[in-house]
Amino acid sequence: MKNYENVTIFNHPLISHKIAILRDEKTSMKEFRELVEEITTLMTYESLKDDVATVEIDVKTPLETCKQQVIKDDSVAIVPILRAGLGMVSGVHILFPLAKVGHIGMYRNEETLEPQTYYCKLPEGIEDKLVLLVDPMLATGGSACDAIDLLKKRGCKNIKFMAIIGAPEGVSRVAEKHPDVKIYVSTLDRCLNENGYILPGLGDAGDRLFGTK
Questions:
Q1: Catalytic annotation present for 40
Q2: Could you tell me which residues are beta bridge partners of residue 133?
Q3: Of 112, 149, 180, 212, which is the active-site residue?
Q4: Contact call for residues 43 and 94 (beta carbons, < 8 A)
């Protein structure tokens, strides 16, 4: 895969350690959910370290008053792509507990492998917020591209997309279609198989998060 200016692939030993456990077929549903949350928190910390709206306030310490930068109220929104993206929301909320949450529901047509949208509900004023679009798996890139299209139609101008596992095909598709969107992926895997699943991957993230098939 070629290098894209809007793509960041994390090479962090702590994230790599957690993804190794996440991949393991023996990992329980409870532990899987906890790992997704932990990895998301680490990704959020890195992804938003230089691109969050702040304001300056006065803080009175026990010794004197000083100026301090704090995050601007109601400046971040989280939008998971249903259903697996729900597993990442709490990981972002650990750092941004007051962030409003929108939802975009999509399912994959098993014949065409293309996404079908069935639900979209977004917070009021989302066009003025930094939007974190989240989905654990970036496979073909179809769902991510369509979700970004929906957000842009609502006027969103500052969008970041986070995925835990990505395939080169999906990363390239999103990066080329939406060069203005910053893409963050914890691990870039080898390829997609004939059914559009990431290899080596971790199976179906939604099934493993929620215990359903």
A1: no
A2: 79, 161
A3: 112
A4: no
